[in-house]
Amino acid sequence: MNTVAATQSKSDCNARLRLAHLGMGLAVSAAVAFAALVEPAHAETTKSQAFLVAKQATSAPAGASQMCTTFQWACAVSKGAAPVTKAQLTAIKKINSKINRRVNEVSDAKQYGREEYWALPTSRGGDCEDFALLKKRELMKAGIAGQNLLIATVLDNRRRAHAVLVLRTASGDYVLDNLTNKIKHWDSTGYVFLRLQNANAPSQWTAVLSIASKRA
Questions:
Q1: In CATH, what number does 3-211 get?
Q2: Angstrom distances, CA of residue 113 to CA of 98, 117, 195
Q3: pTM > 0.70: yes or no
Q4: What is the C-alpha to C-alpha distance for residues 119 and 127, in angstroms, rounded to an integer?
Q5: E strand intervals along 22-119
Q6: In degrees rounded to 5, what are phi and psi of residue 90?
Q7: d(C-alpha 197, C-alpha 216), whole Å
Q8: Which strands sit side by side in the sheet containing 56-58, from one edge to the other?
Q9: Contact predicate 99/139, CB 8 Å
Q10: Looking at the chain, which terminus has fewer C-beta neighbours within 10 angstroms, N or C?
Q11: 46-59: per-residue pLDDT in tens?
């Protein structure tokens, strides 16, 4: 993909998600302000947590309000779901890298003529949340329970709005990101985590407002 086009697509995704985050109100504003204030020293004062913890219920991100209607599987919960196995982790890595490699980044504005539209990537490509949706679908096909695959909205290392897929394992939460093929523990991403699908009811969203203690 053309480098300039890819950069522009990321910028478009960032701009639209940034507007969406504003809807979380003062809680998100406080979290972002807190991140800016404590960032120089927070690696020494913040204890690493294995899992992202829900602070309170919140509204769905802009563009995701119809996600469960359009893609029912994206909000499905599997009964008797088993923990992610080592064999599955190998498949997860392959699927994550394959999607990152094969899907081009293109903004919703260019594809659909609208600022925010959560969908699966088309033949032209998709933006950050489209990558996350496709990864969730393909990993569910590979046998990973839906409640272990949670879409999250974050602020990336440059504090730009972004979306990723969180893989919940017995040892903690890990991040599948279209900006890197590396699957990192959430606390090693350097991201500020804002919203996360509710693992018990993925049609609902929670505010996590968690800051990774380690810069990527």
A1: 3.10.620
A2: 28, 9, 25
A3: yes
A4: 9
A5: 56-58
A6: -65, -45
A7: 23
A8: 56-58, 205-211, 192-197, 149-155, 161-169, 172-177, 180-185
A9: no
A10: N
A11: 445 899 999 999 99
